[in-house]
Design brief:
Oligomer: single chain
Number of strands: 8
Radius of gyration: 20 Å
Strand content: 15-25%
Order of helices and strands: HEEHHHHEEEEEEHHHH
Largest sheet: 8 strands, antiparallel
Helix content: 25-40%
Number of helices: 9
Structural class: alpha+beta
Strand order of the largest sheet: 2-1-5-4-3-6-7-8
Length: about 250
């Protein structure tokens, strides 16, 4: 994620950057661009050490509400500058937590980490809660992320926060009050019916259509939903899908 500026008194050791990396990135960026075209997702590739964007998808659509050329002209802080003022401290805290986490990892782990968080950004003149998913594409010689890939999408939550990372199948969530990481509950088990209901919901089927496809009554489908929501600690099907994916239940 783009980082806020350090104070002038802070000395940041700069890793050695391989000048051959930029030419070698083009096939990767071409692949990212192809993914953006077929998925209609808003994605970008950023150099977080040199503080510049190497690629911004051409179809940001409802995510940030403008085109790639205009976004590029806003400069490296375009994500930070769009965060609503009331969530700037939250954003800075999440950045700090991620930076401290990365410092505790060995170089190989830093290459494989996936990070997600939710923050409210201005889309035109309207605030919108967005989910940011980030993973390194290239790391510097010291193993710290250098080139990152990020995808933005509408958040499935009602409020900002929800910082977590996944590494080798293990998911950890950041407690903003305690300021530490704790495991995401991996002991949740869902039934075949609950899993099928989630998959059909993700495909856009209504409760009535799911009832027909699963050969279950509408009341039975609703019961499965209530049970699943309770297991996952959520209140709607979008949150249930998000948590099911996060916990590898699908």
């Amino acid at each position: 994620m783009p980082r806020t500026k350090k104070s002038a008194a802070t000395v940041i050791p700069q890793p050695v950057l391989d000048p051959a990396t930029y030419p070698n990135l083009q096939p990767i960026i071409n692949t990212v661009a192809a993914f953006a075209r077929i998925s209609r997702q808003w994605v970008y590739v950023a150099d977080i050490i040199r503080r510049t964007y190497l690629y911004i998808s051409e179809t940001p659509g409802a995510t940030l509400g403008t085109d790639a050329q205009r976004l590029t002209s806003e400069g490296y802080n375009l994500i930070i500058d769009r965060v609503i003022p009331s969530e700037r401290l939250l954003y800075n805290e999440m950045v700090r937590a991620v930076e401290n986490l990365i410092d505790t990892m060995d170089p190989d782990q830093r290459k494989r980490i996936e990070i997600k968080f939710d923050i409210t950004s201005m889309v035109g003149d309207r605030p919108r809660l967005l989910c940011h998913a980030i993973t390194p594409l290239v790391t510097a010689d010291d193993g710290h992320p250098w080139i990152i890939l990020s995808m933005l999408s509408p958040s499935m939550y009602k409020e900002a926060g929800h910082l977590f990372y996944r590494l080798d199948g293990e998911a950890m969530e950041y407690d903003l009050n305690q300021r530490d990481w704790h495991p995401v509950d991996s002991n949740v088990r869902i039934t075949t019916c609950e899993r099928n209901m989630l998959i059909l919901s993700a495909r856009g089927y209504t409760i009535e259509e799911i009832s027909h496809l699963m050969y279950r009554s509408i009341d039975t489908v609703k019961m499965h939903r209530r049970t699943l929501f309770k297991k996952l600690g959520v209140s709607n099907i979008n949150e249930a899908l998000f948590h099911a994916i996060k916990q590898n239940l699908l």
